[in-house]
Amino acid sequence: MVIFLFLNLKGALKGQFVFPKSILINQGVLRREHVKGKMAMRVYPTWLDHLNLTASKTQKWQGDYFIDLSSEVDHNRVAQLYFT
Residue 67, SS3? Predict the structure, then answer.
């Protein structure tokens, strides 16, 4: 599991990404046999808009692994991402 914490220091927006290792392997982020992986990764919280096409596609698959902590937290969603 890989976790990224995202804070918008100018506002009240915050959240975190919780990516299972298997997803990052499937997306080519982590190394697997005969595939190098990436040196860096950009994350796009659900509240970002006006993204280019590539960033929008990335945001779409990342959204399944994002927890918005700006308001009421869905504890079932948190448990699902952390413990399944």
Answer: strand
Name the pLDDT band for 64 (thresholds 50, 70, 90).
very high
Q: What is the C-alpha to C-alpha distance for residues 53 and 73, in angstroms, rounded to an integer?
A: 29
Instruction: Tell me the β-bridge partners of 35.
Output: 32
**Tokens representing residue 48 in the block:** 């970002």
CATH class of 2-83: alpha beta
Sheet hosting strand 66-68, strand order edge to edge:
2-7, 14-19, 66-68
**How does residue 9 score in pLDDT terms, banded at 50, 70 and 90?**
low
| Partner residues linked to 4 by β-bridges | 17
- Domain map (residue ranges) of the chain: 2-83
Element of type H or E holding 2: strand 2-7
**pTM of the predicted model as reported, rounded to 2 decimal places:** 0.82
In this structure, the number of other CB atoms found within 10 A of the CB of residue 67 comes to 21
